[in-house]
Amino acid sequence: MAGYLDQYGAGEDKRENFIRNSILVAVLSIAVLALGIYLFRTFPETRTTKAFLNLVRARDYTGAYTSWGCATPCPGYAYDKFLEDWGPKSEGASNPVLRITDSESCGNGVMVTVNVSQGRQEKLFVEKGTKALSFSPVPVCPGKGPWSIMIHRTVGKLRWIFY
To answer: What is the pLDDT of residue 163?
Structure first.
């Protein structure tokens, strides 16, 4: 005959497994969410740059100049100068690559590295609010600490999957 306390503690193992699995799922979900936020935080600015590069590739220089942020002629960047940099007579125009190789959040914008041709690489700066393109004023984002640089050089390289 079974005793009154024979079944005491029988549900403890199930409860412990449930709690352990719930904590594991929560931690993994938070890690995947954080990775997704990190990888996609520069996506809108990268998409703007990609649209600009597609216009240059299609030789729509007027549209590319407009997407640069110059709907009317820019005071510091005339259309003739734009054509020297991106037009048919620019360096590497005969064999353009026009490929985004890196993007990094930098202050109030995103610094996007573009391989224009085999020997030419440009760093473009896309403002977060207006999505206006310009050449980056600095080669490297200022104020980045060693941890930030390490994370960008390791985890940030996963962005290549989406470029």
So the answer is: 63
φ/ψ of 53, rounded to 5, equals -65, -35
Structure tokens at 146: 């060693």
pTM above 0.90, yes or no: no
**72-113 confidence digits (pLDDT tens):** 888 888 888 988 888 888 877 777 788 888 888 888 899 999
CB burial string 67-79: b at 16+ within 10 A, e below: bbbbeeebeebee
Judge contact between 111 and 132, C-beta under 8 A. no
CB atoms within 10 A of CB 63: 15
Write down the residue that tokens 């709690």 correspond to. Answer: 19
Residue type, 144: K
Q: Yes or no: say if 106 and 124 are a contact pair by the CB < 8 Å rule.
A: no
- pLDDT tens digit sequence for 142-155: 888 888 888 888 88
Residue 133 CA to chain centroid, in angstroms? 15
CA 53 from centre of chain: 15
